[in-house]
Structures are given as structure tokens and as C-alpha cells.
Specification:
It is a single chain. By secondary structure, this protein is an alpha/beta fold. It has one domain: 2-enoyl-CoA Hydratase, Chain A, domain 1 (Alpha-Beta Complex). The protein has ten helices and nine strands. Strands 1, 2, 3, 4, 5, 6, 7, 8 and 9 form a nine-stranded mixed beta sheet that branches. α6 crosses α7. The chain is flat. The chain starts with a helix and ends in a 6-residue tail after the last strand. 27% of the residues are buried.
Length: 311
């Protein structure tokens, strides 16, 4: 059946509208793509305050260091707020992050805010900041170093399993799960952790401007609430990010109306939960991921970690 004139006109009009909507759709997709590229590369960002979230177990982290280096080179961040919610981690991992944050502090003011937990290695990270702020009920401190090991020779003997180990020296292979720790091995390991402990206490003393006696007094491994930490001069102020912004505006002339932009850490590999950028989603993903793959099982080295007893 031939189309009449009105139907033909309507059909052409619909085709034109369809073309217009297609153009709009393509333009919208291009705009979203450009926005994603800008967010990923930092293009188009104006002056802002950067925020770095440090959560969970702290270990050596190359991509995080690269992100902080980019922050330094970019020049658009006027300050860095480090949000800490961590029990600590390896001493080397905490030291690495401390050193990188001190490099950032040479270019811009750095403020640390401690949330629920910022203990041991988490407190080492806080020491890198120009100002440390914690909630009244935050847990912090736990200044100390530990080395954990287990020995199963008694169990293996009951199971009828023998174990042998050849070494090039009497202290090589100590500690070992296959034999009891020797007196000489115990002395050597104690010297090891004491050396790292002295480094940690020295860091507290210099960064918090404490006397040697005052630093030794607070460095017995205990954790402190934010209120107690304030009394012992381990932190500067009670509060959170709002108080951090107030201090930055008052003392470092960083305008309070500047937007806060999270530091983006790009990872090509590693645990899947680290790709999550939302802080709330990241915390949930970490809890799930670490239930399936405990990160500490893959680590060696000394720990600056607060680990409450099971009982």
C-alpha cells in the first residue's frame, strides 16, 4: 500500500529525530569518556586538597609511591590529608610510606587524621604529618616492634614425622618451625627487634619533640585513646577532617572552600580490592578479600603491628 503524503512526512520527521538523538547519545558517550580520562590523568583539575586513605595492613607499595610522586609533580594540590585507619604492618612498609610523605611535606602541608585505629606502623605514618589529629575514642600508639614465629617439632614428633635442615651457620634458618629456637638465636632475634624499636622510639622523640625519658615512657607497646594520646603529646588535636581543614586554613592559608580530591593509585596487578576507589566500598572489599586471602601469610620481616590478644 502506498504511503500517503502525511505518513511520508511523519516518517521523515521521525528519521530526523532519530538521527538527532543518536548524535546526542554519541556526544554524551564522548563526554563521559573524556571525563574518565581527565579523572584518571588529573587533567582539568584545579587547585584542591588531596586526600590519601591508608587502611588495613601497611606494606611496601610501589604504585602508592608513584601516586604520591605524581602528586608532588602535578603542583595542583595545595595540601594533603592522610586518613589513617590501620593497625600497622611491616616496619619497612611503614618506613617507606613515612619517607614518601615527608617528601610530600617538603612541597605542601600534610595533616594526618586517625580514625578508628592508627597504631604501631599506622602511627609511624601519622608521624610524617605536620599535624596529627585523632578522635577522642581513636586507638593509637602501640609503639613497638614484634616478630612472631611458631615451632611444630613436638607435633611432628607425635605424628612420626622427622625433619632435617642443613645450614651454613648455626644462626642460619633461625627461627624455624622445625626445631626449637636456640639460646643464641633468641639473642640474635632480640637484638634485631631492639634495633628497629630504637629507630621507632627515636622517630617518636624527634617528630613529637619529646625528651628521651618522655618517649621511653610512652613506648612500652600499649595503645592509647585519642584523649590519652593528647595528654602524652602523641597527637596535636582532637577531631577529624573538618578540624584538619580549619587548621590548614588558619595556619597554612589553604582555603577551606577548595575541593577535596582522593589520590588515585593505579595498579596493574595485586589484590583485586585495591582497585576500588570509594573509601567505604574499599573497606568492605578489603574485609572480604582478606578473609579469602590473608595478606600477612605472604609477608616476611619485622612487624610494627597492633594485634589485640584473642582472649
Amino acid at each position: 500500500m502506498a504511503l500517503d503524503a502525511d505518513a511520508l512526512i511523519d516518517r521523515r520527521r521521525l528519521k530526523r529525530q532519530l538521527v538527532i538523538w543518536r548524535v546526542i547519545g554519541v556526544a554524551a558517550l564522548l563526554a563521559l569518556a573524556l571525563l574518565a580520562v581527565a579523572r584518571a590523568t588529573g587533567l582539568g583539575q584545579r587547585a584542591h586538597v588531596a586526600r590519601l586513605s591508608v587502611g588495613g595492613f601497611i606494606s611496601e607499595d610501589g604504585p602508592r609511591n608513584a601516586a604520591l610522586e605524581q602528586l608532588i609533580q602535578d603542583g595542583k594540590a595545595k595540601a594533603l590529608i592522610v586518613n589513617i585507619n590501620s593497625p600497622g604492618g611491616t616496619t619497612a612498609g611503614a618506613e617507606m610510606l613515612y619517607v614518601e610523605l615527608r617528601r610530600v611535606a617538603e612541597k605542601m602541608p600534610v595533616v594526618a587524621t586517625i580514625g578508628t585505629l592508627g597504631a604501631s606502623g599506622g602511627y609511624i605514618v601519622a608521624l610524617a604529618a605536620d599535624r596529627v589529629i585523632a578522635r577522642e575514642s581513636s586507638l593509637t600508639g602501640s609503639i613497638g616492634v614484634l616478630l612472631q614465629t611458631a615451632e611444630f617439632s613436638g607435633l611432628l614428633e607425635k605424628l612420626g614425622v622427622g625433619a632435617e635442615m642443613l645450614t651454613t651457620g648455626k644462626l642460619k634458618g633461625e627461627p624455624s618451625p622445625l626445631k626449637p629456637l636456640s639460646p643464641e638465636g633468641r639473642v640474635a632475634l632480640n637484638e634485631l627487634i631492639q634495633d628497629s624499636y630504637r629507630w621507632f622510639v627515636g622517630l617518636v622523640q624527634s617528630r613529637r619533640n619529646l625528651t628521651a625519658d618522655a618517649a621511653a615512657l610512652v613506648a612500652d607497646g600499649r595503645v592509647y585513646t585519642g584523649r590519652q594520646a593528647m595528654e602524652h603529646k602523641l597527637i596535636d588535636q582532637l577531631g577529624g577532617e573538618h578540624e584538619a581543614r580549619e587548621w590548614l586554613a588558619r595556619e597554612r592559608q589553604v582555603a577551606e572552600d577548595l575541593p577535596v580530591i582522593d589520590v588515585r593509585i593505579h595498579r596493574e596487578d595485586g589484590p583485586w580490592w585495591r582497585e576500588v576507589t570509594s573509601q567505604a566500598a574499599q573497606q568492605a572489599a578489603q574485609a572480604i578479600g582478606k578473609t579469602l586471602i590473608p595478606e600477612r601469610l605472604t609477608l616476611d620481616g619485622l612487624l610494627a603491628l597492633w594485634h589485640p590478644p584473642d582472649n
